Structures are given as structure tokens and as C-alpha cells.
Amino acid sequence: MSRFTRPSRFWETLAVVIVKPLSTLLVKRDWRRGDRIPRTGGIIIAANHLSWTDPVLLAHFLYNNGRWPIVLAKSTLFKVPFLGHAVRSLRAIPVNRGSSEAARSLEASSERLRAGGAILFYPEGTCTRDPGLWPMVGKTGVARLALESGAKVIPVAHWGAQELLPYGEKKPRLFPRKTFRVMVGEPVDLSGYAGLPPHAQVLREATADIMAAITAQLAELRGEKAPETPYDPEGR
Q1: What CATH number is attached to the domain comprising 109?
Q2: Tell me: the pLDDT tens digits for 170-198?
Q3: Which ranges constitute the DSSP H helices of the chain?
């Protein structure tokens, strides 16, 4: 694995020593179908977003299943003393949301995919605002990245992080100890879009397929039926 897609031994060891015990202490595990995650090659891990703790808990899951997750993080984190250096050293990619530079994060992600990296992507772009905490309508960046790179998209659903730290709260709810559940699906079939120009409609449809795959995994994980129409925060 290239150092372009994995941190130095020092930073990897430091992250593992901190994250794995912390994750184990905070939550119980119910991890399913980790065998569906390819151990080599560039892949996109497309996941739902429930809590600010998602990246840490999912990173533990992915690491235990043989992949170092390359996270897309807010660009502001890279400007915080020490934290910015640590995030950069852990191979995270800065995202300038709502700016003309946002495309740079996709370019950087594409480069990491070509080098064999595993990109952890939250297609919703933020924690879900759906009242039932189901995945929302996704943004098209994940579809564009997948169609341009040809990388497999692995849908991953998780549940329980929102009980540990609900969105918008700063104080975690440590007791009783929560369970972090994960379900991995088969790669999303995007073959129907191969060779098509990346027009807006194509990207929206491919994104909808990706979000539907994530939602299906979450429905199985929760043992509930998902809404027929995903929540659209922009009211379209």
C-alpha cells in the first residue's frame, strides 16, 4: 500500500492506539458482512451519516477489515493547531464546502483511488435531517467520483452512533453503553451508466442508486421498512 494512501508507521500506530481502545470502551459491536469489503484496490465506502462520532467508529470497523479509511474532512479542521497536522498526516482530504474549490477534494480522492486507497464518503454531505434518521437525498459527488474513476462503491450502513452522540450535542451519552451496528452491502451496480456523459440527470440517478443501496442495508440492520421517498433537505 502506498504511503500516499496510508500514514507513516508513527501516525498509524498512534491513531490505532487511541481509536481502537476508545471505540471498544464507548460501544459494543455488532459488525456484519465485513467480508464484502475488498482488501485491495481503490474503493469508495459510501455510508450514511448520523453523528460526529461516525468517522471514528467506522474507521475502527474498516481498519479491522483490512482497509485504512481516507476520510474527507472539513477544511477548517486542517487549520487547527496540531489537529490540522494530525488530520493531514492521517491522509484525510480537505473539503471546502460551498466553494469553487470543492472539486479539488474529488480530484484528490480520484488520485488516492488510483493509488489503491479506500475513500470513506458520506454522500449526504452532513448528518441526516430525516425525522426517522433515514438517509437523505445524496449529493452527486460520490457518483461523479465513481463513474469517472471506475472504482467499486461499497454501501455501508450503520446504526447506534446517534445514541452515543446525537447530532448537535457536544456531550456524549455514555451510559448505558451503546451498540454500534454495521452492515456492508454488495458493490452498487453502476454498469448502466458506463460510457454516459456525466450530465446532471445521470449523476442524480447514479447517486439515487447508491443511496438506495445504503438505505436497504440500514433497513435490514434496523429491521424496519424505509420510507419510499428519501428526505430532501432542499425541498426539491
Answers
A1: 3.40.1130.10
A2: 999 999 999 999 999 999 999 999 999 99
A3: 9-26, 54-64, 83-89, 103-114, 141-149, 161-164, 200-222
